[in-house]
Amino acid sequence: GENVEQHPSTLSVQEGDSAVIKCTYSDSASNYFPWYKQELGKGPQLIIDIRSNVGEKKDQRIAVTLNKTAKHFSLHITETQPEDSAVYFCAAARSGGGADGLTFGKGTHLIIQP
Amino acid sequence: GAGVSQSPSNKVTEKGKDVELRCDPISGHTALYWYRQSLGQGLEFLIYFQGNSAPDKSGLPSDRFSAERTGGSVSTLTIQRTQQEDSAVYLCASSLFLRETQYFGPGTRLLVL
Q1: Pairing of strands A108-113, A86-92
Q2: How distant is the Cα of A114 from the closest Cα of chain B, in angstroms?
């Protein structure tokens, strides 16, 4: 089955700086890669996703890049703000996460220092 | 519109008791998924429904776990004879169709004493 590795487990950055979280996956058939943000006591919230037919996707301060050859994808957050502090999860799936569900990384605790 | 809702938000039970967790998906979403989030295992996929059908139950941790969905909407996850290792947050997600973006509920925090 799919295995997703996520690094780092904790990331502390100064407010206004950029943050990068990296994930690798094992199943070359995976073609859907979402990123979720989870705040304390809440469920995961989708922030951006990318499918394998594109290499990069951007939404305001958030961008995701995908390298299918190397089987890794990354989340980039620019101009970080205090409200970006949360746990971020990457995930991978075949066919958009249907029959096999989503396979998640272990999460990255992002801390924005004021 | 309303997002995915789950009840109860918290549940404390004694070892050996049965518990039932409920998920109300986003209206009109045909696919529904259950996940478990625990400190040791991260986010773990359990089962999915397409309509009222769950074609693959192999992700359920043991035969004490069962799930059903009726009317293509509400789903319940039942854990019989709960054990301490069942303590976790149980998350439900739904998507408009299978293979579409999944939206998560707030979860049910289960503590087995």
Answers
A1: antiparallel
A2: 28
Q: Name the residue of chain A whose CA is nearest to B91's CA.
A: A43
* Paired tokens of A81: 């703000």
**Token digits of residue A56:** 């990069």
Give the residue from B113, B108, B100 showing the smallest Cα distance to B75: B108
Q: What is the DSSP letter of A113?
A: E
Give A53's contacts (C-beta < 8 A, 6+ positions apart): none
CA distance A14 to A80: 8
Per-position pLDDT tens, chain A of length 114: 889 999 999 999 999 999 999 999 999 999 999 999 999 989 999 999 998 888 999 999 999 999 999 999 999 999 999 999 999 999 999 875 556 689 999 999 999 999
Residue of A97, A105, A103 lying closest to A2 (CA atoms): A103
Q: Rounded CA gap, B13 and B28, in Å?
A: 33
> Is B82:A26 a contact under the CB 8 Å cutoff?
no
Nearest-by-Cβ selection for A99 from B56, B102, B106? B56
Which residue of B lies nearest to A37 if distances are taken between CA atoms? B104
The C-alpha atoms of residue B102 and residue A34 are separated, in whole angstroms, by 9
CB–CB of A89/A104 below 8 Å?
Answer: yes
* Interatomic CA distance for residues A75 and A64, integer angstroms: 5
Question: Are the C-beta atoms of B50 and B31 separated by less than 8 Å?
Answer: yes
Contacts of A74 (CB under 8 A, 6+ apart): A20, A21, A22, A23, A64, A65
